[in-house]
Amino acid sequence: MNDTQTFTAFDGQRQIAHGELAVVAAAACATSGQLLILEDSTGQTVELDLRQGPEAAVTGYRARTEPAREPPARPGRGRPKLGVVAREVTLLPRHWDWLAAQPGGASAVLRRLVEEARKAGAGPEQARRRQETVYRVMTVLAGDLPGFEEASRALFAGDAGRFDGLVDAWPAAVAAYLRRLAQAPQD
Prior knowledge:
Shape: flat
């Protein structure tokens, strides 16, 4: 996901705005149709209370969705808190023997192995999240359009050519948005 969150607003199947939430909220206030606002990186629908104007809607949304901030911890004695979580790991004796023989200890080796596995799986995980985002948006915007099931199959099969061909029959704004989401890098 990007550092800057972007949103897209639709009036029915016509795109009316894209960009930061304040821009989309302002455009949404000028619309009286069937309004739908989507967060681009997740495909989640966004509920804005536009009755008090776009600024109040954005402020209210941010207040509801931003994580609560914890007060800064007071420094105490002992080791600093680094966000480390102690949990139990169950391994066979030969695994414990191998870990004990590694430099840095078992925890350091496990952290290193986990990081390597995360990096190796980043591509497939990113593609899976992108597919889920596109599918979520497709369901909301095009779930009742002809060819939806076939387009879904093409999306999850990774058949970009077939997907593009199937969404071509849909309203231009919906097809363009789905294509943009399908090609957008995440993370």
